[in-house]
Write a structure and sequence with these properties.
Shape: globular
Strand content: 5-15%
Structural class: alpha/beta
Radius of gyration: 23 Å
Number of strands: 13
Oligomer: single chain
Distance between the termini: 37 Å
Strand order of the largest sheet: 9-8-10-7-6-11-12-13
Helix content: 40-55%
Length: 501
């Protein structure tokens, strides 16, 4: 570790680093870190640990025990890395004990989810001359009148590939679906083991597939065999009302059949196509990213290529010289590097805190606030939220930029008229449906709905303990009281954006 630091930092900054060789499963040695006096703590763990996530939680428990014994310990932010997305997803939904949260401000982090947000939300990596700016998946405004849909093709159902697909599903919600329910965003996974990986994916996000149908194609033998998979639980008007659909293709992306399919997608004028190469072996990802059909590069289709240790080669190929603005690989972008993977910018978190304030204000006063309270009030209210509600507000914040692009707003002071608020409120509900399903909530059956609407007590039990929400339904079937929240959060977008620049 010391050698790595010596390589990365200059002598001046290296002096600010202390390396302590100790065991993190020992309270006595953890006490030597003096975390009670820290401004912020990052609990990363060590590479190649057999039980990485459990060890991190055990370490966190021991640190909390240390903080309990301190009389004047402030609430300190703890960012905890979870290596496995299943663990990370569980902590997006399951709260820490109330006792723990008296001493720490808990922020779970996953490398793959972090990179997905870097590509799709902040859309930036690095600073200065080495900064990489990633194009949005909706490169043009997909308006209410638009006939186009976003199509994200992910080659490789690796952990990185799945994270990007799920993050995209949180974001790809556009007004034209409100006009035509056949215009949906499409996320396509291509993998030689897509049959097996699809089963894992459908199991992990089972509540989405209870509602939504999907397509599976077997192209492993250069022929296209299609299988239409129906929703597993609901049918009729209770199914297929979501505006994002997944499809799975079994086969190797370099085979002629799939290469020809990619060509078809490139020349489909109704698609806004992006390709992400997410194979686990970086040289293989590089080869795939650079040897897609020529049509991909000729039409300037963005190609995101997973790398690991360095982006130098792709940066060189991608670089846009002043005298050569566009060339073959100018739309090929590296991502997934191990360094600078965590974004220290707290802009999205503050946006989530303002959205939470808007919800609270609506509950108390019935309308949208006109100004923001001081940061300490925002933070205090935020820290009282369950982790699942924090994530709900964060995902709502992540979606603001695509929403504004869909009505032609890309920068400057934001102001929305009544028609824009009405339209984007429906888009917000479509997004919310997807968010809740991906976070582990499910749509209630008809029998459960009767119980939920029968009493507030039963409604709270279903929502807070069983993660069953009656508002997971088409927008036009919502009660007016629920629509009011979608309108409120949409009307509050200017407050979020104009107070967080």
């Amino acid at each position: 570790i010391r050698s790595k630091i010596h390589t990365e930092l200059d002598a001046k900054n290296e002096k600010r680093i202390v390396v302590l060789r100790a065991r993190r499963d020992s309270i006595e040695e953890l006490e030597k870190l003096y975390t009670t006096k820290a401004r912020e703590v990052f609990l990363i763990g060590e590479r190649n640990e057999h039980d990485h996530d459990s060890l991190n939680i055990d370490c966190l428990k021991k640190i909390v025990d240390i903080h309990k014994r301190c009389n004047k310990c402030s609430l300190i932010p703890f960012t905890v890395l979870f290596e496995y997305q299943t663990t990370f997803a569980a902590f997006q939904l399951t709260d820490l004990s109330a006792e723990w949260r008296k001493y720490i401000e808990f922020h779970p982090f996953n490398f793959y989810e972090g990179w997905a947000q870097k590509i799709l939300v902040s859309r930036r990596y690095g600073k200065g001359e080495n900064c990489i700016e990633y194009p949005p998946l909706d490169r043009e405004a997909i308006t209410y009148e638009s006939e186009k849909h976003v199509h994200l093709v992910i080659i490789g159902m690796s952990r990185m590939g799945v994270a990007i697909g799920v993050e995209a599903a949180h974001l790809l919600h556009f007004p034209n679906f409100c006009r035509d329910k056949n215009i949906k965003s499409v996320i396509t996974f291509i993998d030689e083991n897509a049959d097996r990986e699809m089963n894992f994916f459908c199991g992990r996000y089972r509540h989405y597939f209870e509602i939504s149908s999907t397509h599976y194609y077997d192209m492993s033998k250069d022929e296209r065999h299609e299988r239409f998979v129906l929703p597993t639980r609901f049918k009729g008007k209770d199914a297929d009302f979501l505006d994002v659909e997944f499809e799975f293709i079994k086969g190797r992306a370099e085979t002629p059949a799939i290469q020809n399919l990619i060509k078809e997608w490139v020349h489909d004028s109704d698609q806004v196509l992006t390709i992400a190469v997410c194979l686990n072996y970086p040289p293989q990802s590089m080869a795939m990213g650079l040897y897609l059909p020529d049509d991909v590069y000729d039409e300037n289709i963005p190609v995101f290529v997973r790398q690991e240790t360095s982006s130098a080669l792709l940066n060189m190929l991608n670089s846009k010289k002043k005298d050569e603005a566009i060339h073959k690989y100018s739309h090929v972008f590296p991502f997934g590097m191990l360094d600078n993977c965590y974004d220290l910018d707290k802009k999205s978190r503050r946006e989530g805190q303002i959205i939470n304030y808007i919800y609270d204000f609506k509950n108390k006063y019935g309308n949208v606030p006109q100004s923001c309270p001081p940061d300490n009030e925002l933070k205090d209210s935020w820290n009282k939220l369950s982790v699942s509600l924090q994530w709900s507000n964060l995902y709502s914040a992540y979606s603001i930029s695509p929403k504004l692009r869909s009505i032609g707003i890309t920068d400057g002071y934001v102001k929305l008229d009544n028609d824009q608020i009405t339209l984007l409120a429906e888009v917000e509900h479509n997004r919310w449906n997807m968010e809740k399903l991906l976070l582990g909530f499910r749509k209630p059956t008809a029998e459960e709905e009767e119980l939920i609407y029968g009493s507030k007590e039963m409604g709270d039990i279903f929502k807070k303990k069983r993660f069953v929400h009656p508002d997971i339904r088409p927008y036009d079937e919502l009660k007016e009281s629920s629509k009011a929240y979608d309108r409120c959060i949409t009307a509050g977008i200017p407050l979020v954006v104009n107070n967080n620049t």
